[in-house]
Design a protein that fits this description.
136 residues; 13% strand
Length: 136
């Protein structure tokens, strides 16, 4: 699983909350009780979608999770990853940066600021409600 996928799942919950998932069920038509055999039963496919998931308040969820911890997750990618129980090593941050479109990640303070904002923007694209202060 991607690093961003781990971050998203840690905040939003498991993938089973994905509102784009559909389930398909196949059943056979019921048989009749006549002496004449019924025509070949045709499979019937029913598709249904799960109800859309409400927008997730990222700041609220992270705030609850971070209560009592001395982590600056609102602006630090390292602290955000620590809060979520994800390895915040340079290699993982570099991989996350590559997932989010940056191939020249060096681990500098500027890169980490960019990575935090890019992560928050991606969470917002995926149904998270993120305060503007974390996006700018």
């Amino acid at each position: 699983m991607s690093i961003f996928g781990k971050i998203k799942d840690a905040i939003f919950g498991a993938d089973d909350n994905d509102d784009t998932q559909t389930a398909t069920r196949t059943a056979t038509a019921p048989s009749t009780r006549s002496a004449v055999p019924p025509p070949a039963a045709q499979p019937r496919t029913t598709t249904f979608s799960r109800a859309p998931v409400k927008e997730v308040d990222v700041e609220e969820r992270l705030g609850k999770r971070g209560e009592g911890q001395d982590l600056n997750w609102r602006s630090s990618i390292v602290d955000l990853m620590k809060l979520l129980g994800i390895d915040s090593s340079y290699d993982n941050r570099k991989e996350l940066a590559e997932e989010l479109g940056r191939s020249d990640y060096s681990g500098s303070a500027e890169d980490n600021i960019w990575l935090h904002k890019a992560t928050m923007k991606e969470l917002a694209k995926n149904g998270g409600r993120v305060p503007a202060s974390m996006l700018d």
